[in-house]
TrEMBL record:
Database matches in InterPro entries: DUF4334, GXWXG_dom
Alphabetical list of Pfam families matching this protein: DUF4334 (PF14232), GXWXG (PF14231)
Domain DUF4334: 81-136
Ranges of residues in domain GXWXG: 30-61
Annotated source species: Aspergillus japonicus CBS 114.51
Protein name in the entry: GXWXG domain-containing protein
Superkingdom, natural source: Eukaryota
Amino acid sequence: MESIPPTPAQKYLALTQTPGQLDRAELETIYDRLNPVSPTFLDGEWSIHLLDTGHPAQAIAEDGLPLIRTLFSLEETEKNKVRQVKFHGIGACAVVPDGQDRVDRFRYVNESTVAATNEYKPYYRDSGVLHFYLTRVRG
């Protein structure tokens, strides 16, 4: 009996449970196969989790994570210019805050998980994107 290959979402969820540093190329290949989310899907409260790819900004981001919980509202997403964009040739939902050279992109994993990347060229330069994911806060 043939086994069904895992979906990109299943592969991504497996990577979120993998200890240690992830292979950035593998992560980006899986991320690129995920579907985009709509701005309205982001409405609500989310917890942020980093994925270890050895990105130079990771240590700084990890220090700030205990202080951060992300809350998206439709009003906020309109203010921060949530857009549908193409990233690596594939659709993604992006938040582009006013006055900042930063872009956060979001892709659908499941109803409670969103894959995300952060690009901040003035700080990261040519280091690529910082990978993280959001989990919906229930209750």
